[in-house]
Amino acid sequence: MKLLSVHVLVLAALVWASLVSVALALSRAQYASALDKSILFFDLQRSGRLPSWQRLRWRGDSGLNDGRAQGVDLTGGYYDAGDNVKFGMPMAFSIAVLAWNAVEFRDSLRQTGQLGNTLNAVRWGTDYLLKCSARPNELWVQVGDPNNDHQCWERPEDMDTSRTAYKVDTNRRGSDVAGDTAAALAAGSVAFRGIDNAYSNRLLVAARRVFTFADRYRGKYSDPLGYVVCPFYCSYSGYNDELVWAATWLYKATRENSYLQYLQRNAYSLGGASQTMNVFSWDNKFAGAQVLLAQSVMQGVNGLQAYKDRADGFICAVLPRSISNSNQLQFTRGGMLWYMGQLNLQYVTSSSFLITTYARYLSASRRTVNCGGRNVNAAQLLGAAQKQMDYILGQNPKGLSYMIGFGRNPTRVHHRAASLPSKRARPGKIACKDGFNWYNSWNPNPNIAMGAVIGGPDQGDNINDNRGNYAQMEPATYVNAPIVGVLSELAAGRRY
């Protein structure tokens, strides 16, 4: 009996110690390490002839003939996730958000030594978007046939699948992807202002032109191009949110009345001032535009209050019930914000980014946000975002970090380049079907998908470490892009 009680006490002590270790906050140095890795992930996704400043050395050149068959240069840009297709819609969103990070958290990124790396990642994307939008009333929006690509499991350096390029124009309209591209170019313009003004101006000129095209020739790009963009990146939410998103960034980039008046005049017809969202994603950008416009309201700009009201609604909807009486979403028992079973962490990172951004705005204007009768301050918002970051980085029931290369990770990431031997390790070509020998293996990936934030665990805080489980095990640029600013604030030790 005495021996049993000793075992019980020891067990209780171990459980308590485990819980304490989970509850301990990460250090600034750990956040700084995660920040560095989160940006490094864009090296993994890079297409084209790799630059001299490429830090991830086991990747090689790829997609060097992209666009050639159509008589255009479409080399460069990023692969969206674990495949070898360049999808314009999520790419533009990722670049816009990454540029927003460079604008909003410039001081923290500079303090942590990551501003240059962030801007390098942005520029690689905006350079590509400039190529895609070089001709008036025409925008190249995709390179590669995903149906063909998904029949193979091969390194980007070995690609021999179709690299057909697809575009929208005055006949095959795509206001959504064009609006997305205009927003990315405008956000990039703001990010490079004061650093490379000539480049900033070039981006702004392109952003204006692409937005005019998007607004004048309205339509969803998945109508004419559904056979290659669906079901992967269909425009489920339509194009109104992208028009608002683009106009918002052009207003921020120019402060011109024409864009302000566009937002005021179309506030309800496009839905930006009437729809309260609980999601910010590659498909639906309303919440991002609303948060940006809320800052303008806090700075004294008139005629945008309805957008701020919707931004308040988003913030209150995604906060936990312990803070907000207006919560609309579930949290797992381990504390993760829960949206859906496929790449759930994309919504966790994007929501955390907007929460942190809003915290900055509230702090600067000395305001709070009212969530169902409870006033929530900037410090509470940052704390809520920090809890989500901590969960991703290993403070969860499984003790697993879902950022690869940081902490203890799952080992079979759904990613072609990471799951196959690098060209350095195996110079010979790995053919289309031969790659499935590695895909079906239970061995860990031979390469570390450094910095990749994967889809993440299920509603029970569990994850199936299986390469075929793309819903949980695949990373994407739009999962990583929003996390950069949040980590930079935590690494810099910001307090609101």
Helix-strand blueprint:
Blueprint lengths: L1 H22 L4 H18 L40 E2 H17 L1 H6 L3 H18 L5 E6 L2 H4 L15 E5 L5 H18 L4 H20 L9 H4 L10 H15 L2 H9 L20 H13 L6 H14 L11 E2 L5 E2 L6 H21 L3 E3 L2 E3 L1 H15 L23 H4 L16 H4 L30 H4 L3 H4 L2 H9 L5
Antiparallel strand pairs: 1-2, 2-3, 4-5, 6-7
Organism: Ceratodon purpureus (Fire moss)
Family: Belongs to the glycosyl hydrolase 9 (cellulase E) family.
EC number: 3.2.1.4
Describe this structure in words.
The chain has 20 helices and seven strands. The chain has helices at residues 2-23, 28-45, 88-104, 106-111, 115-132, 146-149, 175-192, 197-216, 226-229, 240-254, 257-265, 286-298, 305-318, 345-365, 378-392, 416-419, 436-439, 470-473, 477-480, 483-491, and strands at 86-87, 138-143, 165-169, 330-331, 337-338, 369-371, 374-376. Strands 1-2-3 form a three-stranded antiparallel beta sheet. The protein has a two-stranded antiparallel ribbon with strand order 4-5. It has a two-stranded antiparallel ribbon with strand order 6-7. A hairpin with a 2-residue loop joins strand 6 and strand 7 (374-376). It is globular and about 60 Å long.
